[in-house]
Amino acid sequence: MARHPSQLYEASLEGLLLFAVLWWYTSKPRPRLAPIGLFFILYGCGRFAGGGGFDFPDANIGYLAGDWLTMGMLLTTPMIFIGAMVMIYAYRCNQTSGNLRAAEA
Predict the structure, then answer these.
(1) Which of 14, 21, 30, 61 is 20 to 30 A from 42, comparing alpha carbons?
(2) Rounded distance, CA 27 to CA 74, Å?
(3) What is the pLDDT of residue 43?
(4) What's the CA gap between 40 and 46, in Å, rounded?
(5) Which of 47, 6, 44, 38 is nearest to 20 (CA)?
(6) Radius of gyration of the chain (CA)
(7) Residue 42 pLDDT
(8) pLDDT digits (tens, 9 = 90+) for 24-62
(9) Residues 32 and 97 sit within 8 Å (Cβ to Cβ)
């Protein structure tokens, strides 16, 4: 039975792509808490996408809604919303984060 290499998909989404986007995002001055908010959003989306169609659901639970929503996807959804709220808060408060030295900025 052929299966998708879901571990490789997750490693590329939650590892390499997430690292590259956060590296690029933090290369410029951003508001305080914005990088962690972006991390929560991207990690949550990566987990949601990685578990949504390539992974089998837990044997004792199965799918929660139809044939697509798994428990892992459901538990990852609050992380995405929390990350979005942190990003909104960060940009509304607009405090300097100190991720770059003053001489570089």
Answers:
(1) 61
(2) 32
(3) 93
(4) 10
(5) 38
(6) 17
(7) 95
(8) 999 988 999 999 999 999 999 988 887 666 666 666 677
(9) yes
55, two tokens: 């992974």
Residue 104 exposed, middle or buried by CB count within 10 Å (0-12, 13-18, 19+): exposed
Q: What is the pLDDT of residues 54-104, one digit of tens each?
A: 666 666 677 677 777 888 888 899 999 999 999 999 999 999 877 665 545
DSSP the chain: -----HHHHHHIIIIIIHHHHHHHHTTS--BTTHHHHHHHHHHHHHHHHHHSSSSPPPTTT--SBTTTB-HHHHHHHHHHHHHHHHHHHHHHH--B---S-TTT-
Alpha carbons 26 and 49: distance in angstroms, whole number: 24
Amino acid 103: pLDDT: 42
